[in-house]
């Protein structure tokens, strides 16, 4: 595809903003995906491209919590392969969804992602209360959690926005542990889903590499800027701003 310098600028600014938002509150996909479609990239290709472009961000979040992840080797050995399988299944479903059918689903998916972002903090508060009332125990590791993670991963491979909230909810239902450890495991699972789907997408011919490379650079810069702004911008304010943007974008897609 050919893009003008203005379209490259819009994509770069969106990736920059998404990197900063993800570092502070989450929900960057609600910024980048609409911009990718706005510059003329078909919805399926925009989703595929966005998934590939998110990989560095997921890797950085996983690396930052590697210590807590290593302490959960048993859980990770079970859940990471399952999540990777789910990511591939979701990617397969996406590439076999027609462009028109996926476009029809987009407003619902964006609205769902916005709602998931909105309930993220109440979910964390509930998990923290649950952990304080029920101390962690080796018996809290139920194998049925793998089935729930698989379903969440399929969604993540298909669209991805709001995946972290879904995975954290699944882990909170299946496991009794501290919020810090569950959050770290969530990051590893989300990275596994994203990287598996991204690798699958590499062979699809749908990745728009011109913008992926630009988004990698800009999102990394945005993430660094977001880290420096942490504490200066209230995360709840930013989160609700992104939620409002997501709802507005879904309404625009519905009207179309």
From TrEMBL:
<feature type="transmembrane region" description="Helical">
    <location>
        <begin position="148"/>
        <end position="175"/>
    </location>
</feature>
<feature type="transmembrane region" description="Helical">
    <location>
        <begin position="237"/>
        <end position="255"/>
    </location>
</feature>
<feature type="transmembrane region" description="Helical">
    <location>
        <begin position="76"/>
        <end position="95"/>
    </location>
</feature>
<feature type="transmembrane region" description="Helical">
    <location>
        <begin position="35"/>
        <end position="64"/>
    </location>
</feature>
<keyword id="KW-0812">Transmembrane</keyword>
<keyword id="KW-0813">Transport</keyword>
<keyword id="KW-0472">Membrane</keyword>
<feature type="transmembrane region" description="Helical">
    <location>
        <begin position="195"/>
        <end position="225"/>
    </location>
</feature>
<dbReference type="InterPro" id="IPR052017">
    <property type="entry name" value="TSUP"/>
</dbReference>
<feature type="transmembrane region" description="Helical">
    <location>
        <begin position="107"/>
        <end position="127"/>
    </location>
</feature>
<comment type="similarity">
    <text>Belongs to the 4-toluene sulfonate uptake permease (TSUP) (TC 2.A.102) family.</text>
</comment>
<keyword id="KW-1133">Transmembrane helix</keyword>
<protein>
    <recommendedName>
        <fullName>Probable membrane transporter protein</fullName>
    </recommendedName>
</protein>
<dbReference type="GO" id="GO:0005886">
    <property type="term" value="C:plasma membrane"/>
</dbReference>
<keyword id="KW-1003">Cell membrane</keyword>
<dbReference type="InterPro" id="IPR002781">
    <property type="entry name" value="TM_pro_TauE-like"/>
</dbReference>
<dbReference type="Pfam" id="PF01925">
    <property type="entry name" value="TauE"/>
</dbReference>
């Amino acid at each position: 595809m050919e893009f003008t310098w203005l379209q490259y600028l819009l994509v770069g600014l969106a990736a920059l903003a998404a990197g900063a938002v993800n570092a502070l509150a989450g929900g960057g996909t609600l910024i980048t995906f609409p911009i990718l479609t706005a510059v003329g990239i078909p919805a399926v290709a925009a989703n595929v491209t966005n998934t590939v472009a998110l990989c560095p961000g997921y890797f950085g979040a996983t690396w930052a919590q590697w210590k807590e992840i290593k302490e959960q080797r048993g859980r990770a050995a079970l859940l990471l392969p399952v999540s990777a399988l789910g990511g591939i299944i979701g990617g397969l479903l996406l590439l076999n969804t027609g462009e028109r059918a996926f476009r029809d689903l987009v407003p619902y998916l964006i609205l769902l992602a916005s709602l998931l972002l909105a309930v993220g903090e109440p979910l964390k508060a509930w998990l923290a209360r649950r952990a304080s009332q029920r101390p962690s125990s080796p018996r809290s590791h139920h194998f049925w959690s793998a089935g729930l993670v698989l379903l969440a991963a399929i969604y993540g491979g298909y669209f991805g926005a709001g995946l972290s909230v879904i995975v954290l909810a699944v882990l909170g239902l299946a496991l009794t542990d501290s919020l810090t450890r569950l959050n770290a495991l969530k990051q590893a699972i989300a990275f596994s889903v994203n990287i598996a789907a991204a690798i699958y997408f590499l062979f699809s011919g749908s990745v728009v590499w011109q913008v992926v490379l630009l988004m990698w650079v800009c999102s990394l810069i945005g993430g660094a800027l977001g880290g420096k702004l942490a504490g200066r911008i209230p995360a709840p304010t930013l989160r609700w701003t992104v939620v409002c943007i997501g709802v507005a974008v879904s309404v625009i897609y519905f009207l179309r």
